Amino acid sequence: MSYAIFQLARAHRAHAGALLRKMDLHPGQELLLMQLLDREGQTQSELLDAVGLDHSTVSKSLRRMQEAGLLVREPAQHDRRVMVVHLTDKGRAMREPIAALWQSLEEISAGNLTEQQAAAFVETAYAITEVIANRPLPLEEPG
Question: What is the chain's alpha carbon radius of gyration, rounded to the nearest angstrom?
Fold first, then answer.
């Protein structure tokens, strides 16, 4: 089962990555954009928590997205050390293309499944995710 999950994740990520590259985005950037489209003006820490990616990945993605003109980062009024992320008009214009990308990817992914199979898959995937997420990680051996 683990190998099947790995293969599924790899195939899905590769196809999503190809679709994202056509939009000049890197994988994960669409998640940050969607978070900001849902709630404008989040701090980098809030975005980290929301998307579940590591700090360096989010920082690098935000820098690239700022260079592409999709967002701006400004110091928060309450604490100048905290950076607040805001979308530009170009970033806000990504809502529909990203939604269409995810719709297309979902149609491709579930193309050979019945409605019942798709629903069962989603339920099973969430059940597996919950079990894994709630299981403590093994402690590393010192040395």
Answer: 18
CB atoms within 10 A of CB 91: 22
Nearest CA to 91 among 35, 52, 14? 35
Residue 140, pLDDT score = 65
* Residue 130 pLDDT level (bands cut at 50, 70, 90): very high
Laid out side by side, the sheet with 83-87 consists of 42-43, 83-87, 71-75
Report d(CA 27, CA 53) in Å as an integer. Answer: 11
Percentage of residues in the chain with pLDDT exceeding 70?
A: 97
Q: Which residue, among 20, 35, 37, has the nearest Cα to 105 in the 3D structure?
A: 20
The conformation of residue 52, written as its DSSP 8-state character, comes to: T
